[in-house]
Amino acid sequence: MSKILDEVLAANQAYVAGFGNKGSLALPPARQFAILTCMDARLDPAKYAGLSEGDTHVIRNAGGRASDDAIRSLVISYKLLGTREWFVIHHSDCGMQLFDNAIMSDLLSKSLETASIDASGWHDTGKGPGCDEGKYINWLTFKNLELSVVEDVQRIRRHALVPKNIPIYGFYYDVKTGKLVEVADAMQAGRAL
Amino acid sequence: MSKILDEVLAANQAYVAGFGNKGSLALPPARQFAILTCMDARLDPAKYAGLSEGDTHVIRNAGGRASDDAIRSLVISYKLLGTREWFVIHHSDCGMQLFDNAIMSDLLSKSLETASIDASGWHDTGKGPGCDEGKYINWLTFKNLELSVVEDVQRIRRHALVPKNIPIYGFYYDVKTGKLVEVADAMQAGRAL
């Protein structure tokens, strides 16, 4: 038995003991908004944005990037579960600024050679410029933090499946202070049309 | 100014005021594990699994599915940031059980007609069976909760970029009780090889 598994299950047991009436929470987010942010261990969106269970959809991936999968989740969030405002929140000192696609390809060169794709629609890879039949993966790294927020807000804003009238707010989280810092160009790019 | 934006920024201000020494947390997750779970508003992984800031990578999307983007994040988590155990945690009463690709296509029929793909590698869509040049999106819905956990653990386990020796644990979260319930077949499928 893994120590981590033991610890997680013990913590969960304590959570269950104090669960109270949270079992009656409804499926749609009560506060009708969603946050897209990074998987980084230092970020706790519930704490940094003041969320209780039942409030808000939280989507997280490496970088908090507006990948297709994040947009899949946001579209479901809006269309089926009623969110009406979205936040994109990247952060300082992000791992995605420390490397690039070339570094990942080197690290994974052996595995990438044997990687194969299926055609089931799960894949972020694809054929096209820079895509070598699935041997290429876009790791969605970035060089400039503020620009990465602008880029992602723009990608969401312009996406054909995203409603024009939903506001998208662009911020980054400062890991040194815990503060959410507004990215002016992203706020501009994310205004409801 | 949006009420939600006001509330989030006010909550953030309070968080900053009590931030303490969290600014010195390191980038790699201190407890060296990662959780893939659903964006559902009722789930707070930090609370249900006992996580503090700095402990753990948390990846979330609609359904907690092992999409390419989730696997991108997990591979980065392992390879660059040192996680050595992974959890896949779906949950009861998931929105992804309430609909299917046909329902989403109906809801979005107008938008889907105008949707276009680029070839930048962000896309979960693709050409292939069931994929009509990007007009098709796999929404990754599911019918059977436990089976969906098994399926995702298997997809991660078999992925060419995933190390064979990392254990993957399969659970679902019961929204009525807060309890993490082990999915035996998923635990079996996720054993280190």
TrEMBL record, chains A, B:
Stored Pfam families: Pro_CA (PF00484)
GO molecular-function terms, A-Z: carbonate dehydratase activity; zinc ion binding
SUPFAM superfamilies xrefs: beta-carbonic anhydrase, cab
Chain positions recorded as Zn(2+) binding sites: 38, 40, 91, 94
Cofactor binding notes: Binds 1 zinc ion per subunit.
Keyword Metal-binding found: yes
Cofactor: Zn(2+)
Key words, A-Z: Metal-binding, Zinc
Domain of life: Bacteria
Gene3D superfamilies cross-referenced by the UniProt entry: Carbonic anhydrase (3.40.1050.10)
UniProt record similarity statement: Belongs to the beta-class carbonic anhydrase family.
Protein known as: Carbonic anhydrase
